[in-house]
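just leaving the lab so this will be short. what follows is a protein written twice so to speak, once as letters and once as structure tokens for the fold. can you read through it and tell me how you think this chain folds. thanks a lot i owe you, the record is right below.

___
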Amino acid sequence: MNQPDLHVESARLQQEIERHLGVEGNLIYDFAQQDGKVRLDLVTVNRRHNQSFLFHTAWGVDRVDALTKMLDYVRHYQDREATYTIQWVPVGARELQTSYFRARHVYEALDKLYYGRELHSITVLSVVLNPVA
């Protein structure tokens, strides 16, 4: 039996993640080795803000396993996590920005906002837990 091509399988999983989220070209798959495992940070790029935010982190034994776990998360995150609205302003700017995050708690929502940023690069003005519809 032939082994699956890992690049082809990775591409298929990425396409399925993008299709399920309804986005194309606005996702960054950031892989890193850590403690003998593969960490996958899925980062979204917001065209309106021209900013990037962490969507979710998944761990796996290899890239395909991490992508498979990310796909499972993408399929079910709306049932498992609350929605937060965060209003913020970049330091030195005047325009208020509004971003939405799915997270288990407020600290996780803030971690997703601050991902890849210096702590003092933005000012958070409000964090609201949105009501369940």
The domain at 81-133 is CATH 3.10.20 (Ubiquitin-like (UB roll)). The CA atoms of residues 44 and 76 lie 18 Å apart. The chain has a mean pLDDT of 92.
